[in-house]
């Protein structure tokens, strides 16, 4: 590599600008490198310069037949990607999600480029992914330069899957810096939840817990931010509980648009759990954002959440599925805004000291710049 030249990094992710994947946007804009973004599929079909290969039905059929006939050879798709990386003199490949890293092994071998893989959540836990990629993961663990994980629970999970502990790097996410500027009012009974409406976030259980405290706090409000397949089911449950005036479905909001909600809220709530298909959290970014925003967090002892939230100090943790305990914790904060302020202040201090975005990016920079 020429002296004084920035590292040229190929950042490869399945999709571009997914609203729930803020970490990829931060990797793209904050890592100290000249970044080439490639996306659309585990083997990317597009770069920001345009398509890497034809996407017509005949072209896709030909590539599939070629792969079946010559499984040991790089397919046309992989050869196109190798050509792209060589033409841009790429130095390092960072694959977002374990499945992406496993799909890039042939390309990494052909180019000899260091392969870094960042696991995030479902890629480490979901049953069908582990079934389909288990053998390839084990091969990838021996090939990758480093494997980044976002929680202690995920680190242990990858060890059970066969990863060499020397290659594992625990690298928690960090929130956007502007969350530290929230000026909190700790309005009694004002709760906020942020996340996709999916099984592992269990939004219906958050609603059930809120329903248990609403009679004691008739003016309480729960604002739920996000979208997803369980949204309509949750709307229906709110109607059944006759809480339409007390639960606000705010839709998808940008991180900056969360600030007014955090300013008013007395606490952030999220009832994460292991989904029936094995899907699990990494470390939820929204929990980090809430803590940085000065909010106590009421959540579950699930995946990476206990890495961040200290029960009784920066919030309350309950067991997965324990709606009654979650309601009690929410009620304790609704009863006592001074407790919410105390916990929220401690949460902000903890995030600032241990979970900043700067620290997260520096950890990646430290490894991708090694030669």
Automatic annotation (TrEMBL):
GO terms assigned for molecular function: glycosyltransferase activity
Protein name according to UniProt: Glycosyltransferase involved in cell wall biosynthesis
Pfam families linked to this entry: Glyco_trans_4_4 (PF13579), Glycos_transf_1 (PF00534)
Occurrences of domain Glycosyl transferase family (ranges): 189-350
Gene3D superfamilies xref list: Glycogen Phosphorylase B
InterPro entries, alphabetized: Glyco_trans_1, Glyco_trans_4-like_N, Glycosyltransferase_grp1
Record's keyword terms, sorted: Transferase
Stretches assigned to the Glycosyltransferase subfamily 4-like N-terminal domain: 32-174
Naturally occurring in which organism (per UniProt): Dinghuibacter silviterrae
């Amino acid at each position: 590599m020429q002296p004084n030249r920035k590292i040229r990094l190929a950042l490869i992710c399945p999709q571009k600008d997914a609203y729930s994947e803020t970490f990829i946007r931060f990797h793209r804009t904050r890592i100290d490198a000249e970044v080439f973004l490639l996306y659309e599929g585990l083997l990317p079909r597009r770069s920001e310069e345009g398509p890497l290969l034809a996407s017509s039905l005949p072209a896709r059929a030909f590539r599939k037949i070629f792969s079946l006939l010559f499984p040991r050879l790089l397919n046309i798709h992989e050869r196109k990607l190798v050509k792209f990386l060589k033409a841009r003199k790429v130095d390092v490949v960072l694959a977002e999600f374990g499945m992406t890293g496993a799909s890039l092994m042939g390309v990494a071998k052909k180019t000899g480029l260091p392969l870094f893989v960042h696991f995030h959540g479902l890629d480490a836990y979901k049953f069908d992914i582990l079934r389909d990629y288990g053998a390839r993961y084990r091969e990838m663990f021996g090939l990758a330069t480093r494997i980044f994980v976002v929680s202690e629970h995920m680190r242990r999970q990858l060890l059970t899957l066969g990863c060499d502990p020397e290659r594992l790097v625990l690298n928690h996410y960090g929130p956007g810096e502007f969350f530290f500027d929230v000026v909190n009012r700790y309005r009694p009974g004002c709760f906020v939840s942020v996340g996709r409406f999916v099984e592992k976030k269990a939004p219906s259980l958050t609603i059930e817990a809120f329903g248990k405290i609403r009679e004691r706090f008739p003016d309480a409000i729960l604002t739920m931010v996000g979208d997803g397949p369980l949204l309509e089911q949750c709307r229906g449950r709110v109607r059944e509980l006759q809480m339409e005036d007390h639960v606000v479905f705010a839709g998808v909001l940008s991180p900056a648009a969360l600030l007014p909600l955090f300013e008013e809220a007395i606490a952030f709530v999220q009832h994460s759990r292991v989904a029936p298909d094995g899907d699990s959290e990494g470390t939820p970014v929204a929990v980090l954002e809430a803590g940085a925003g000065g909010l106590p967090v009421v959540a579950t002892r699930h995946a990476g959440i206990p890495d961040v939230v200290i029960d009784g100090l920066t919030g309350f943790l309950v067991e997965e599925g324990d709606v009654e305990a979650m309601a009690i914790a929410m009620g304790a904060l609704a009863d006592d805004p001074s407790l919410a302020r105390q916990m929220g202040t401690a949460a902000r201090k903890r995030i600032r000291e241990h979970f900043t975005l700067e620290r997260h990016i520096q950890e990646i920079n430290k490894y991708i710049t090694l030669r």
